[in-house]
Amino acid sequence: MSVKLRRILCLVVAAILIFALTACAGSESESEITTVTTTSKQVTTQPAVTTTASQTTTKAETTTQAVEANPFEEFYEISWIFGFCDTYDEGAYDELMIEERYNIDLQCWNISYYDTEGLTMMLAAGDIPDFSNLAKGGKAPHVLYEEGFTRSVPLEMYKKYFPYYYELMENNAPTSFEYNLIRGTEEYYGISWVRSNYKMFYNAPLFRLDWLENIGYEIP
Q: Are 139 and 149 within 8 A, CB to CB?
């Protein structure tokens, strides 16, 4: 084969290769364009949502619990004569128990309520305890009241501060409302012993044991 023919064949092959490459490039371009034009991208637009935080104000209810008043909050010192106080031992367990329970200090005066001479001298000196039973003191309840040693006790005070005693008075009416009564009033010279079987506190009924046994009465 001549040199001239070889050149012609080389040119033809080169032309064919160039044409083939151009055709491939055009095909890829058309394919890309077709893909772009035939594929639609769906874009969904969501409406803008604005969230407003609502502020809730809760009004707290304040509940105040009623506090029960302590009837023994205030401290008292109480002087005392009742019975044979001349032999009383200070600081006994029952005294301490009562003092702690009622927030008080019991001050027992060392004198017997049967000591007429000692009680008379005590009253002559103007001394008298806060609470006492002066059975042998030489002065009756109305005399002590009239001379300013004692004060009266209204019936309403029994109802309010001594309901147990007032109940005893009702259970033993009508005579229980007559003892130590200041005539024409509802006030009393003092607190009386309430009994339905005798009128004065020192008139206690007594029975002979042998007589009771002879009639068949058994002492429990």
A: yes
- Tokens found for residue 117: 């001479």
Write out the H or E segment, with its range, that includes residue 187.
strand 187-188
Could you tell me which of 216, 193, 218, 217 has the C-alpha nearest to residue 204?
Answer: 193
Strand partners, 105: 77
User: Model-level pTM greater than 0.85?
Assistant: no
Q: Which residue spans within 33-178 are E strands per DSSP?
A: 76-81, 104-108, 131-132, 153-154
Tokens of 181: 């009564």
Candidates 154, 133, 159, 160; CA nearest to 144 is: 133
Domain range list for the chain: 75-150, 152-220
Phi–psi pair at 18, nearest 5 degrees: -65, -40
Q: What is the pLDDT of residues 159-179, one digit of tens each?
A: 998 999 999 889 888 888 988
